[in-house]
Write a structure and sequence with these properties.
- By secondary structure, the chain is mainly alpha-helical.
- It folds into three domains: 137 residues, no CATH class; 68 residues, no CATH class; 148 residues, no CATH class.
- The chain contains 25 helices and no strands.
- The chain is elongated.
């Protein structure tokens, strides 16, 4: 006489049930029996494989909860054997369409230091946030290269946000996040105090925070904030954020003094500060160099803004560097490129520290190199920096006039064909001279 359902349930859950009976129970018509079988801690790998393809998602879900956590509790040899046998079952379930099954597997394997790598990667690339997030944020098996590949694969915003929240990500991963121009992810990255972010990137993001005000608070509270970023923020933030910035113990002395004076006068950002010398910087990320997804200003009165010098040639230069209207024909090589507009806009607002920081970031040089070129009032040096930063020859003219304050007769203008007035060898020499032989 065939046992009733209750008896079959007990048999499925019992660790002493023979493999033959377990195999029969794996195809039992009762989902309750098959579910109890999935809970059996002594389930042979071949039976797990059968249940991994079960038609009922609840059975697969129970099995997915059980398989991976078993391995850390076994001796090394047995643990490796169980892991190898479990990979096939886990892989089958990861590929399953049931969302809850994939989510349970992700929760089960997220902390494993030596779990099945192919499954970890598949889960990290899962489009569902409840599946990918646990693995992305916590799996020790994901390398920086894995994370950069994940970011550059065009995932949904929730995936990038999960990477930005992962503890102790490196500068290369942070650069990849900034390159996406995902404002929410960048905000999460800035709030992630264990993430490494290059100084040049922080400087440029500080300059951009005038528009992206949600970044200001995490920037002000960020540990190891570079002096240039401190100075830029001191001219932007107000209210309690300004007080928080002024209370930092690592505040640059010049910035701190200017802030105390400004707060005492009630005019934050009104006190000019001298140059700040930050440590050398590495290659910054593309988005931090000004490659933004925001529209540049199209103010028709830009050339006549009150904070620009009243020199007609300079106004004409700015007018020629103005952003084109939508639908306008492509601009020739001599006219400013769209990536140049953040720096041009900073110059328009007389925000010299912000313009200097963004130019340094784009050129991949210390801010001190930009400041030295301006102090020398060297047209060749400024043109060379603009070239290295990937800017147009016409923007190089604006930089000479508005950043280095060169008179019109000293400005190096584009050549006859609209290119740079200097050869590439000459510009490389200028960069080597500015940086002490390390262009």
């Amino acid at each position: 006489m065939e046992p009733d359902e209750a008896t079959r349930v007990r048999q499925g859950a019992c660790i002493t049930t023979s493999p033959d009976i377990l195999r029969d129970l794996a195809t039992d018509p009762s989902v309750t029996v098959r579910a109890s079988l999935a809970l059996n801690p002594a389930l042979p790998p071949q039976i797990s494989a059968i249940l991994a393809a079960d038609t009922d998602a609840r059975v697969r879900q129970i099995l997915s909860r059980k398989l991976a956590p078993l391995t850390p509790q076994l001796p090394e040899e047995d643990r490796q054997r169980v892991q190898r046998n479990a990979v096939a079952s886990l892989t089958a379930m990861v590929a399953d369409a049931a969302l809850r099954v994939r989510a349970n597997i992700a929760e089960a394997v997220r902390d494993l230091p030596d779990g099945p790598r192919d499954i970890i990667l598949r889960l990290a690339h899962d489009p569902a946030v409840m599946v990918c997030e646990p693995v992305i944020r916590f799996s020790p098996m994901l390398t920086p290269e894995d994370l950069v590949t994940l970011i550059t694969s065009g995932p949904p915003p929730s995936t990038i946000l999960a990477v930005a929240s992962r503890p102790k990500i490196g500068a290369a991963v942070s650069d990849a996040i900034v390159d996406t121009a995902d404002f929410a992810a960048i905000g999460a990255l800035l709030a992630n105090q264990t993430a490494q972010i290059r100084e040049a990137t922080l400087d440029a993001l500080a300059a951009q925070s005038e528009e992206q005000t949600g970044w200001q608070e995490p920037l002000v509270n960020r540990p190891h904030l570079p002096a240039v970023a401190q100075r830029i923020l001191s001219e932007i933030v107000t209210g309690h954020l300004l007080e928080t910035l002024a209370a930092r113990r690592d505040l640059d002395p010049k910035v701190g003094q200017a802030l105390r004076i400004a707060l005492a006068r009630g005019t934050p950002g009104a006190v000019p500060m001298g140059p700040v010398q930050p440590p050398p910087i590495g290659k910054p990320s593309a988005w931090a160099l000004g490659l933004r997804r925001v529209e540049p200003a199209r103010d028709a009165e830009w050339p006549r803004a009150s904070n620009l010098q009243n020199d007609p040639p300079q106004r004409r230069l700015l007018q020629r560097s103005h952003a084109p209207e939508e639908g306008a024909p492509a601009q020739p090589e001599g006219v400013a490129r769209s990536a140049d507009y953040p720096i041009l806009d900073a110059l328009r607002r007389n925000a010299t520290p912000a313009a200097t920081a963004m130019l340094a970031a784009r050129a991949g040089v210390p801010v001190s190199v930009i400041e030295r070129a301006c102090e020398l009032q060297s047209a060749k040096a400024v043109v060379s920096l603009a070239w290295k930063a990937g800017m147009s020859p016409q923007t190089a003219v604006v930089l000479q006039a508005m950043l280095a304050r060169l008179s019109p007769d000293l400005i190096l203008r584009p050549g006859p064909e609209g290119g740079f007035a200097l050869s590439e060898d000459a510009m490389r020499w200028q960069l080597a001279f500015l940086s002490g032989g390390q262009a």
